[in-house]
Amino acid sequence: MLRKLMKYELMATARVMLPLYLAVAALAAAVRLLAVWSDSVHFESVLTVDPVNLLLVLVTVAFFVAMIAVPIAAVVLMVLRFKTNLLSDEGYVMFTLPVSPHKLVWSKLLTSAVWFIGAALVDTLAVLILAADQDLFQGIMDFFRSLFADLTAYYAANGALVIAEIVILVLTACFCECLEFYCPMAIGHSFARHKVLLSVVFFFVIQAVTQAVWVCLVTAGVPFAEDLGTFLSSLSPAVTVHGTMWLSILFCLIYGGVLYAITIRMLHRHLNLE
Amino acid sequence: MNRLECRGLTKQFGALTALDDVSFAIQPGRIVGLLGPNGSGKTTLIKLATGLLVPTEGEILINDQAPGPETKGMVAYLPERPSLPQWMTVKGLQDFYEDFFPDFRREVSGEMLDRLEISPKRKYKQLSKGTREKVQLILTMSRKAQLYLLDEPIGGVDPAARDYILDTIIRGYDPESSVILSTHLIADIERVLDDVIFLDRGRLTLTGSADQVREQKGMSIDALFREVYRC
Amino acid sequence: MPWEFRGDQPIYAQLMDQLRRRIVSGDLPPGARLPSVRDLAAEAGVNPNTVQRALAEMERLGLVRSQRTAGRFVTEDEAVIRSLRQDLARAQMGTFLAGMAQLGFRREEIMQMLEEEGGSL
After folding, report:
1. Which of A103, A74, A104, A92 is nearest to A13 (CA)?
2. Is A12:A116 a contact under the CB 8 Å cutoff?
3. How far is B194 from chain C (nearest CA, A)?
4. What's the average model confidence in pLDDT over B72-79?
5. CA nearest neighbour of A264 among A108, A75, A76, A89
6. Global pTM value
7. DSSP labels for A43-95?
8. Contact with chain B for residue A95, Cβ under 8 A
9. What tens-digit pLDDT sequence spans chain C (121 residues)?
């Protein structure tokens, strides 16, 4: 059932995201081609402005706008989908499908993660299209190879494991990012009126509470700072690296877990579709 | 086993009591009218049966089970307003129903769409409101569910469409299935009902077979309703 | 003959009445196959269980018989149909005469009017 939900979620969102991805890649290619053309062609013209150059500038601006727009679009789309599909009229159908609310939320989390990561990849690809040549490629490969070697040698950390940890951390962070919006929306929409306003309010409330918790934790840890410092420097580099990664993942899981639990409870017991 | 059963079902929204200690049971093969004026708790009751709401007190059971993913597979729900995903085509919606509901009979839906000359290629959001309602009705009634919950299926619908809806319900009749129709437009549908349930401000005021009520009270269900709810 | 129902009487009884009329009038001739419960319910716009009850009752009264898989058929017993015809006619006449009496007509007047109006039958 989760796979089916994801299928429809991807279909619904691909209609927006894929054209954007294509646009960014196309614009990158356009900039590259125009740059080449601009270099090799000189217009002897009455005009003071070189038309090719002008076009190049315009397309470059469009490209940068698109590059920024893609990740923003992914976030905005994520928020809108949650609202339209689960908290508006469509919710009448979605919440009466023979699936648990968990699957409904996870289909959205996973799909959003796909588009977030996709946005990062597409932007990277666009930069590569723009600037890539044989030397750059070689340079990048060399850079990563040496990074890997350094990690393994100096920190005695397992390079492959670090990559896996990064992937997990990225995914967990994506889910947390989504839940930071889903949770206040689920709470706000459980009220009869001012649903959107209350969602926004609860968004900031949750942000504030999270900050407050952090401050408390840090202040509580201050007396132990010196002991903690001594302990940390006694650790081997490998443990430090992996430890940091897993600690970060753990924090994300706890934070995300709390938000997830609240979201599910709101959707299951306090759903208030109009 | 009762298709639907309520025991002391109560639902409160803060200070407002939408349903108050409602108890009744519906057996397979019955077409039941859930009747009452606006605000009497009909929609709340249906939402409780579909799992969109949870009871404050008491319980509601479908085939002796509490509402959950399993019961949602047994229940075909037609909400009051068109609520299908807007971006899909009619064919896409058929795929959707087929994917999630094993009891969906695609051929039946295809026939009904044909007869109403609704092309599967049309986009749902391009259809008129009336056609959208019909599409949702067709998809819902094309399921071979054990319990159909139709929330105000004929409200705001022209007489021809109303007849079509009632005809669909009659032709879809199955001795294993039950249908619960909620409405405040009783005169139009009372001939189709086996049993009636009257709700007034969240309370159950009358249950019984329609013909029995007609015999006992010597009047139509509609007339009785007007008398009972006279302001 | 379109199906007409009043809300203030049990539907199954009205259904039986209308079916009886159709049998007597020849709309449903002796031995004719009745539509299925579902078709009859859809045609008349009434609940299928109600139709089932009406047909079961008519079977009990001998007006209709059922053949297991083939469906239900109007009786071919002419005597039964004749007797039904008489019953319906008497009931109709009873209503007519009661109505005329309410209007203040006496027997002779009624007979005379029948002679005059009877020509249009």
Report:
1. A74
2. no
3. 6
4. 95
5. A108
6. 0.87
7. ---SSSS-HHHHHHHHHHHHHHHHHHHHHHHHHHHHHHHHIIIIISTTHHHHT
8. yes
9. 678 888 788 899 999 999 999 998 888 888 889 999 999 999 999 999 999 999 999 999 888 998 888 888 998 888 888 888 999 899 989 998 899 889 988 888 888 888 888 766 6
Q: What is the 3-state secondary structure (H, E, C) of chain C?
A: CCCCCCCCCCHHHHHHHHHHHHHHHCCCCCCCECCCHHHHHHHHCCCHHHHHHHHHHHHHCCCEEEECCCEEEECCCHHHHHHHHHHHHHHHHHHHHHHHHHHCCCHHHHHHHHHHHHCCC
Q: A4 and chain B: CB distance < 8 Å anywhere?
A: yes
> Distance, in angstroms, between B102 CA and closest chain A CA?
10
Q: What are phi and psi of B29, to 5 degrees?
A: 80, 15
- Is residue B93's pLDDT more than 90? yes
End-to-end CA distance of chain A: 26
User: How far apart, in whole angstroms, are the C-alpha atoms of residue B187 and residue B231?
Assistant: 19
Token digits of residue A237: 């580099």
Strand, coil or helix: B26: strand
B219 with C8: Cβ contact below 8 A: yes
Q: If you count them, how many residues does chain A have? A: 274
* B178 contacts: CB under 8 Å, gap ≥ 6: B3, B4, B26, B27, B28, B29, B30, B31, B32, B146, B147, B148
Q: Does B196 touch chain C (CB under 8 A)?
A: no
Alpha-carbon gap, residue B21 to A46, rounded angstroms: 89
What tokens does C81 get? 């149909």
Triad B64, B65, B67: Cα angle to 5°: 135
Is A17 in contact with A117 (CB distance < 8 Å)?
no
| Residue in the structure block whose two tokens are 């918790």 | A213
Comparing CB atoms, the residue among C7, C44, C47 nearest residue B222 is C7
Dist. CA B86–CA B61, nearest whole Å: 32
Instruction: Calculate how close chain B gets to A260, using CA atoms only, in Å.
Output: 19
pLDDT computed for residue B43 by the predictor:
93
DSSP codes of every residue in B49-93: HHTSS--SEEEEEETTB-SSHHHHHHEEEE-SS--S-TTSBHHHH
A271 SS3 class: coil
> What integer is the mean pLDDT of B7-27?
93
Cα–Cα dist B49/B178, whole Å: 13
Partners of C77 in the β-ladder: none
Per-residue pLDDT tens digits for B147-186: 999 999 987 777 888 888 898 899 888 899 999 999 888 8
- Report yes or no: B192 at the C interface, CB cutoff 8 Å: yes
User: Residues 6 or more apart from A263 whose CB is under 8 A from it?
Assistant: A105, A179, A182, A183, A186
